[in-house]
Input
Amino acid sequence: MEKSKKTRWARLCALLLMMTLSLAMLTSCGEEGEPRTVVPDENAAATVTVFASSGDGERVFGLFNFGHAFLQLTNKSGETLDLCGFSLAAGESATISTWSLTKRFGVWFNVESAFVKQRVKYNDRLSVTAPVTQEGLAEINGYLREKNRWSVTANCTAFTLGLFNLLVAEENKIGIAGLLTPEKLKNEIARFSEHREVEEIVTEGELGYLDKAGNFVGGFVME
Amino acid sequence: MKRKEMIVFAVISALLTVYALYSLIGYTVTELKYPVLHAGETSAYFGGNLIMLGVAGGVLLLSCSAFSVLLYFLLKDRRKAATAAEEEEEQKAA
Output
């Protein structure tokens, strides 16, 4: 009887250990891959910069902080770009990502730029810029409306990586296996020889979100 | 459940209660440090912290309840054992 109890406890401990190890493997950073370079395109109508911060320096002991990932889209063309009702004028930039903000769990514009303007934030951020293809630019509004949500799996990294891969050429795409975290994206960005540490983020631009119908609602200020 | 197992679970739930309380305070402080977005009368708060606050609150409620129940049964057992010993002594004395 005692032996069977001991076996039961041992099995329970083994199960807990296996679950912990599986979780660690799923969220682990993995080995560093081969170095990469961005394939340039001087005639691109826009550029996209992918940012990832693992939350180092902002972490409080014992509390979860997975960091954040987002994009900065810069309009290089002579025309205004329409992003689901958000106007990105020629030469201007906007940060885009998904947030779990109480008003809307979904796509938000310029939260990061406002954040950086107000607070010391994303100090460990890495970024890399790539040219946007015409095909990608044509599909951006469809993607924003389709991915206008936030959950643990459909998180900021999943959105950012998906949009980045949609916008750039095949050679510049980033691939990540398993659970998508800002830490993993940061490691992938670090592989590019053109990556930058704590790159400046343009802090002007209207702050707002995409509503359920996928239309931009602006006019927010950060206090 | 044996007394030994009850003590183990009581210790685990007590530790969980302490961690949940720490998390609850930590996430509250973090949320208060975060800015709020305003558009006229509309406000938006950072929901990630609020979700974690909810989780920490839930864990606190469960672990605290489990600890209370286990403590109640442990004390009850102890009292029963003490009463039984007293009665035995009284019987011997009689």
